[in-house]
Every structure is written in structure tokens, then in C-alpha cells.
Design brief:
globular; 13 helices; alpha/beta; Urease, subunit C, domain 1; binds zinc ion; 8-stranded parallel beta sheet
């Protein structure tokens, strides 16, 4: 038998194990991870990973792709977002099907699944519930049958996507029965609305005042309430984009009480602080929750390095510098979110591994393995026989400067412009196809599969 591909000479890194090994690929699947001393089996193609790390392709659990939110259209689509993801070593993107006004959650999932057929890499989908109305329970069951078992709820953005506490309770309980998990954007809306009113009265709604309109304690307040709800109904819960050590600690404390509660954070909350709101273009850094003060960022980073963060999501939102600037005088109406699906790996690798000394196995857990498990994506986030052949070859000593002109996201800026970063992929294999190598990018066309989530396992690998 001749195998499609062998990746040899490198150090294979999984969340639970690493060491020199040869990865043998056939039919899009890893068929063997073998002793590097053994002769290479017959193969069509070989990638020399000598001196490099070979890590599982990234699973980005938090992407917004080409979504229209209010007046603003994100500039990418599944084709461009997935090409950018692959350049950044992410081989699975998970998007959100946020219903348009009046649209049912199931219909939103079906609509976005169709758009996802243009993807160059594999995709999965989170549903989103805004109100616990008649028929939602049945729709959640149908979504689970389609392989959508993760459902987002927002505790903020009243009259847009905000779900009340009764909705959060019902959805968490229903999802638990379906083998799923609720994903929650936790910021206490009444605190935010009051802070925004005060800011408006003081004429301080410009992007440079963004921090004051969404205070840190709004996050801890909402996390506390949602955790209590999850504990009450005995259901798991996943918090997207946590930004403070206090919020992370609440999740950890709940976990010690036996609650299946999880923390996601994003590269920007680990690496950028609110001093960027004092620069010439504060609007380019407006995201929700806001970037925090330097001591908060340092404390969050310490939690991540201590092992208290479970996943890294990009919270990718692709707006241009022009879109961000247009209404920068009012953060209540301007588009929020940062582009990041392509830079998740180098930004986080630089901060956590190169600077912070995080073991690379642990980094793989946050970047790929844990997001795969918390999305029910069996066969993702691990390099092992039977797993999908999603592989990233990277040189942990190779430094490159981030430059928006050289990135592939459908926008004209990056929050990391001119930063020196390590952890850029040199080669990427996606479902067995070599899409990036020394010769550049090889567009595989719209081959990405819409993955169906399995029931979510009770335990993480690490
Ligand atoms: Zn988001």
C-alpha cells in the first residue's frame, strides 16, 4: 500500500503526549503515528518537519463569519475566512447562527450551514437562542439531530439578542438532556446600560472611552448568576471570551463544586490592554467585552499560565478600519469585534509559550484539543490513528512581524500590526490535503465539511 502523505522528522505534540514521530496519512485520516527510527512507508508525498513541531490543526471555537449585525456587514465570507484560518493553522472554524429579527433558531442554523459550503476547511456551528418560546425545545432537539449541540446566549444587547435569565435556565437544561452545552456571553446588561447612560450624559461615548461603558464587574456579576443557574439545573456551561481573573476564578470555584463550567479567553485579552484606547485609532480595538487595564490583563495571563483557562477562541469579526471609524464617536452603535482567525496561533503562542513558558502540550489543549471536545468534534484536535489529518508544522524559533498587508483576512488592519510574533505555520495539512507549504498556499476549493457534533464528553483531556 502507498500512503498519501508522511510527515517526518518533527516532534509531534498532542495535549497529553509529545515526542519525535512520523505521521502517516491516508484518505484524509491519520493512519499511524510511528517510531521515527522506522523506515518511511511507501508514500506519494513527504513533508520534512525536521527541527519543527507538528501540532494538531487548530479548532477555533468562536468565529463570526460574514454576519450582518444591524447596519454592519462583516466583510468576509466562508471562502475568505477559511483561507485566512488555514494560513493561521486553524483547520476547523466554528461559527454562530445568530437569528435575524423574527428568525427561528433552527432556520438560522440551516441558512448558515448553506453559506458554509464555500469553506476551504471543516466547519461546525453554534446555534443561538434569544427567547424561550413555543417550539424552541423542539428546534433544539432537531438541531442536535443535525449535529448542532452548542447554543449561544447573550446576557446583554437588550432588544437585539439578549436572552433573559429564564431563557438561559431553560436552554441550559434542554441542551444538557441533548448532550449539548450552553455557550454564554456574560455581561450584566443593567450595569452596562447604566454605565452607557452615564457616559452619554458626560459626552464620553467615543471609542477612547470604551472601557468605561462596559465595566469589569458587569462580567463577574453575569458569570455569578449564570453559574448559579447552571448549578441549579445540573447542566454544563461554557463562558465565551472571559477577560478577568475574577470571572475565571468563579468558573474554577464552580468546577471544584462539580459544575461542568468552562472558560474561553481570546488572544487579544491576553496581549492588548486598554492603553490602546489612547492611541490614534482607538476604534480599531473596540470589542465587547472591552480590552482591560494592564493589571487585569496580567492577572488573566497568570490564570492562563496556571492552567485555569480551557480554550482560546478568536472571536473573529472582520470589519475594515473604515467601518470601525465611521461611528467611532459612539461605541453604542459602532461595530465591535476584532479580526483574528488568522493570528490566533502566533499571537497566543508568542504570549503563552515563547514568553510565558507554557508547555506546548498545554498550548495544544487550549488551541485545538479542548475546543474540539467542547464542541463534540470527535477526530479533531489530536494527532492519533483514526483522527482527521489536520496538521500544522511550525518552527518555534522563527519570528515574523505581523503586517495586515501580508494577512489574508478580508480587512485592511490587524490589532497586532508590527508585533514580532513566533508560531507562524510553515506547513498546514487540512483533512489530508497539504494546503500550505514552502511553495505557498494551495487553495483546495470548497471542500470543507459541515461537521456534526457528537454528544459532548464529560471530561476534557487535560
Ligand atoms: Zn463573539
Amino acid at each position: 500500500m502507498t500512503y498519501d502523505l508522511v510527515v517526518h522528522g518533527g516532534t509531534v505534540v498532542n495535549a497529553g503526549w509529545s515526542g519525535p514521530a512520523t505521521v502517516v496519512v491516508s484518505g484524509g485520516t491519520v493512519v499511524a503515528v510511528q517510531d521515527p527510527a522506522l523506515p518511511l512507508p511507501p508514500h506519494e508525498r513527504a513533508l520534512d518537519a525536521g527541527g519543527r513541531l507538528v501540532i494538531p490543526g487548530g479548532v477555533d471555537p468562536h468565529c463570526h463569519i460574514g454576519q450582518r449585525l444591524g447596519d454592519y456587514q462583516q466583510l468576509d465570507d466562508y471562502a475568505s475566512a477559511s483561507v485566512a484560518a488555514l494560513h493561521g493553522g486553524t483547520t476547523t472554524v466554528v461559527d454562530f447562527a445568530i437569528p435575524e429579527p423574527g428568525q427561528a433558531p433552527l432556520a438560522a442554523v440551516q441558512e448558515r450551514r448553506e453559506l458554509a459550503s464555500a469553506s476551504r476547511c471543516d466547519t461546525a456551528m453554534h446555534g443561538c437562542v434569544i427567547a424561550w418560546e413555543d417550539g424552541v425545545a423542539k428546534q433544539l432537539a432537531e438541531m442536535a439531530e443535525l449535529g448542532v449541540r452548542t447554543v449561544k446566549m447573550f446576557t446583554t444587547y437588550r432588544d437585539v439578542v439578549m436572552a433573559g435569565p429564564d431563557t438561559v435556565l431553560e436552554v441550559l437544561r434542554a441542551l444538557h438532556e441533548l448532550g449539548g452545552i450552553g455557550y454564554v456571553h456574560a455581561e450584566a446588561n443593567h450595569v452596562i446600560e447604566d454605565a452607557q447612560e452615564q457616559a452619554a450624559a458626560a459626552h464620553r461615548t467615543h471609542a477612547r472611552h470604551h472601557s468605561y461603558t462596559r465595566p469589569e464587574l458587569a462580567e463577574a456579576a453575569a458569570v455569578t448568576e449564570v453559574l448559579a443557574t447552571a448549578e441549579h439545573v445540573g447542566a454544563p456551561v461554557y463562558f465565551v471570551h472571559q477577560t478577568t481573573a475574577e470571572a475565571v476564578d468563579l468558573v474554577r470555584a464552580a468546577r471544584r463544586r462539580g459544575v461542568r463550567a468552562y472558560t474561553e479567553t481570546c488572544p487579544h485579552y491576553l496581549t492588548l490592554d486598554s492603553s490602546v484606547y489612547d492611541t490614534e485609532h482607538p476604534e480599531r480595538f473596540v470589542c465587547c467585552p472591552p480590552l482591560r487595564g494592564s493589571s487585569t490583563v496580567a492577572a488573566l495571563r497568570a490564570r492562563a499560565l496556571a492552567g485555569d483557562v480551557d480554550t482560546l477562541g478568536s472571536d473573529h469579526c472582520c470589519y475594515s478600519a473604515g467601518q470601525k471609524a465611521e461611528h467611532r464617536d459612539d461605541v453604542r452603535v459602532m461595530p465591535n469585534g476584532l479580526p483574528g482567525v488568522e493570528t490566533r496561533l502566533p499571537v497566543a503562542f508568542t504570549e503563552l509559550v515563547a514568553r510565558g513558558g507554557m508547555p506546548v502540550e498545554r498550548f495544544v489543549a487550549l488551541f485545538a484539543s479542548n475546543p474540539a471536545r467542547l464542541n463534540g468534534l470527535t477526530g479533531k484536535g489530536v494527532i492519533a490513528p483514526g483522527a482527521d489529518a489536520d496538521l500544522v508544522v511550525l518552527d518555534p524559533s522563527l519570528t515574523r512581524t505581523a503586517d495586515a498587508n501580508e494577512l489574508h483576512m478580508a480587512t485592511d488592519y490587524t490589532p497586532y500590526q508590527d508585533r514580532r510574533l513566533v508560531g507562524w505555520p510553515e506547513a498546514v495539512v487540512s483533512a489530508g490535503r497539504v494546503v500550505l507549504d514552502a511553495d505557498g498556499f494551495h487553495d483546495p476549493g470548497p471542500v470543507g465539511r459541515a461537521l456534526a457534533a457528537d454528544p459532548i464528553p464529560e471530561h476534557l483531556l487535560t
